[in-house]
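Hi R.,

As promised on Friday, here is the backbone we talked about, encoded as structure tokens. Could you run it through your design pipeline when you get a chance and send me back a sequence?
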């Protein structure tokens, strides 16, 4: 199998060092250039500043790479014909020697398979608005339900139907908790009308929760919902107005499937005059930082 694990990552795995998996669909499809590369590098730095080791995952010419180097990240960020690689695309991408960014679903699967415990992203995919008609439900949700990682995100991307997404997470048995919050964050907005009954207040508490999950033999992820920093947020009401406008445009274009999320994000960036990009960048970095702290606490818990 064409899989390459960076030597630093092999060493860290062997020594049970704290590691944080980072996805690359955000690099190839989530953010515009040059913000995409800058942000992923800043996420890696945030993980490192918390005392953990970043392991960014993606595919270059059919080679699945765990721990992309800076040069490889530059390569992936600049390539034109890159795929958004979900779990089901992985085997074909490998055989056809194609390149692309891995979604949360594919990244979580690979991270768990090779022994990582923590993953950071911006917002997970979810149940899309209008899903009762389109059936558009992100594979992130089904993968998280069977992948025992700790995933740090600012909830689901706000372009989703957040209520339906929460219902689906519940049905699938994924643990959802707020980090120092009792509401489900709405990605660019730090809060939403959706309540979260359970919250955790420190990386140590989160690490202990992940260990308890493992001891119980539960197979789902623990999703840690970390709100975007207040200074960078778009207030929920403003966000809903922006979304209503963008939704109409997107519907008129009859876009389907994997292209829906990237188009939505792009249009929101335009309509918000770049505010959504600033919020996205800020939350990605803060999620990486928290994930680093959690990975450290998990490693310390394991070694004590
Ligand atoms: N977080 C972001 N920006 C993104 C994504 C996450 O801040 O672009 C990506 C993730 O890779 C996630 C994907 O898995 O969007 C979800 O896409 P879809 O809704 O098509 O499943
Ligand atoms: Mn979809």
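Update: got your reply. Pasting your designed sequence below so it's all in one thread:
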């Amino acid at each position: 199998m064409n899989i390459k694990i960076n030597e630093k990552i092999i060493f860290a795995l062997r020594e049970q060092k704290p590691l944080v998996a980072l996805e690359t669909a955000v690099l190839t499809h989530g953010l515009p250039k040059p913000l995409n590369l800058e942000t992923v590098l800043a996420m890696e730095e945030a993980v490192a500043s918390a005392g953990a080791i970043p392991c960014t995952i993606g595919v270059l010419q059919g080679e699945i790479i765990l721990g992309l180097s800076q040069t490889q990240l530059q390569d992936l960020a600049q390539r034109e014909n890159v795929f958004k690689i979900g779990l089901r695309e992985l085997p074909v991408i490998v055989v056809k020697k194609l390149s692309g960014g891995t979604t949360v679903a594919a990244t979580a699967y690979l991270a768990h398979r090779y022994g990582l415990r923590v993953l950071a992203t911006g917002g997970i995919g979810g149940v899309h608005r209008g899903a009762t008609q389109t059936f558009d439900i992100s594979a992130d949700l089904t993968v998280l339900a069977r992948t025992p990682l700790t995933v740090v995100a600012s909830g689901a991307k706000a372009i989703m139907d957040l209520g339906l997404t929460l219902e689906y997470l519940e049905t699938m048995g994924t643990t959802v908790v707020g980090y120092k919050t009792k509401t489900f964050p709405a990605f660019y907005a730090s809060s939403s009308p959706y309540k979260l009954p359970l919250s955790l207040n420190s990386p140590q508490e989160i690490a202990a929760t992940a260990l308890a999950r493992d001891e119980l033999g539960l197979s789902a992820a623990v999703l840690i919902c970390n709100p975007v920093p207040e200074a960078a947020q778009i207030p929920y009401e403003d966000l809903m107005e922006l979304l209503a406008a963008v939704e109409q445009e997107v519907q008129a274009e009859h876009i389907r499937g994997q292209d829906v999320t990237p188009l939505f994000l792009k249009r929101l960036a335009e309509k918000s005059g770049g505010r959504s990009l600033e919020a996205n960048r800020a939350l990605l970095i803060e999620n990486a930082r928290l994930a680093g702290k959690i990975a450290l606490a998990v490693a310390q818990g394991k070694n004590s």
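One thing I noticed while checking it: The pocket of pseudouridine-5'-monophosphate (ligand 1) is lined by residues 23, 25-26, 29-30, 103-105, 121-123, 125, 138-140, 258, 261, 280, 284 (CB under 6 Å).

Thanks again,
M.
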